[in-house]
Amino acid sequence: MAVILKDIMDIIEKRAPSYLAADFDNPGLLIGDENSSIDSILVSLDIDDKVIDEAVQKRCNLIVTHHPLIFHPFKSLKASNFKERLILRIVSSGINVYAAHTNLDSCKNGINDYLAHKLGLNDISILDDSYEDKLVKIAVYVPEGYEKKVQEALALADAGHIGKYSCCTFNAKGEGTFKPLEGTHPFIGEMGKIEHVKEVRVETIARESMLQSIIQSMLKAHPYEEPAYDVYPLKNSGVKYGFVRAGCLNPPITLSKLCLRVKDMLNIDSVNVVGNPDRIIKRVGLCSGDGAEFIPLAYRDGCDVFITGDIRYHDACDARDMGICIIDGGHFGTEHVYMKELASYIKDELKSRGLGQIDIALSQNNKDPINKV
Questions:
Q1: Contacts of 235 (CB under 8 A, 6+ apart)
Q2: CA nearest 306: which of 145, 127, 178, 180?
Q3: Which of 133, 246, 247, 329 is the most buried (most CB within 10 A)?
Q4: What is the mean pLDDT of the chain?
Q5: What share of the chain has pLDDT > 90, as a percent?
Q6: Parallel/antiparallel/unpaired status of strands 245-254 and 122-126
Q7: What is the CATH number of the domain that holds 177?
């Protein structure tokens, strides 16, 4: 049973909203048509010729990747250029390509959350603020007796979250007045007459990114033809997203034992390490992929070690001189491990939404291009 690509995109963007992507990034549908019928999906960190071969062999007409195949505009598509040749192969094979990149790094339950939890960290926090989803207040006026239906609609649309509490509203009774004009079909009152109605002002809080969908849900549940509502910007701190996670190990362990745990978590044979193997590690910072730029941030936070990939020589020297340990699990290693989780998430969401069962395969041909000899 085929599934429309747009529905699959909605599922991925529910976890990794596109607005979380860094300015330099290019996630989303890169090749294809969102109205395509998808029969089978291949999930891979990257795309190369072997991954395309695998997609063709398994008859997958959608490849979901972490790293975008297209980062910069093309002036032409020529088979003589390796990247352009890959794109031509994909198009001629009838394959769609979708990428979730930095938005998947920073989102809740994304790659870095996954790594922090798998590593066994406690009291996990976000060290960098790459994006803040600002908060707004919604106030809507509802005739008495209908406020519960509107409250439920707001909650189902994900409004009303304050800390670890949900379904939060404030309700105040009052009197509303209005006069239906020509061409209206009032729920209460008569055309041309001023009406006095007992109403309830329902207030709640919402993330700005969810505002339009919340308003649509509220309007659908509201009995009035033209509901009155207000939206106010708030000074309260919004929901923050970032790439870097930090947390504590309980109990603390040595750097050498943490290296073993990291290798097991990432299913890799070796890591590069900066620091004394016998040093006791309690506070851990991490960032998947290329996170060397965040070493000073982790140091200022008091992290004993920072786990990432792509550590260069001078990064290692700086970390040594600052006194923070480094575990380099590689770019591929720190990100590839999440692809199985992404495939499972898509499969579970398709089932829960009743969109059907389609084959979702994890690429076996996608390998780390860097070999240790």
A1: none
A2: 127
A3: 329
A4: 96
A5: 93
A6: antiparallel
A7: 3.30.70.120
The CATH number of residue 289's host domain is 3.40.1390.30
Tokens of 160: 């009303």
CA distance 115 to 336: 11
The three-state secondary structure class of 112 is helix
Residue 187 CA to its chain's centroid (Å): 41
In a domain, 368, yes or no: no
- Total structural domains in the chain? 3
Question: Does 285 map to a domain?
Answer: yes
* CA–CA separation, 87 and 323 (whole Å): 45
- Domain of 96 in residue numbering reads as 3-101+338-362
Question: How do residues 316-351 score in pLDDT, each as one tens digit?
Answer: 999 999 999 999 999 999 999 999 999 999 999 999
Q: What is the pLDDT of residues 140-155, one digit of tens each?
A: 999 999 999 999 999 9
* Tokens at 37, concatenated: 């019928």
Neighbours of 204 (CB within 10 A): 25
179: in domain: yes
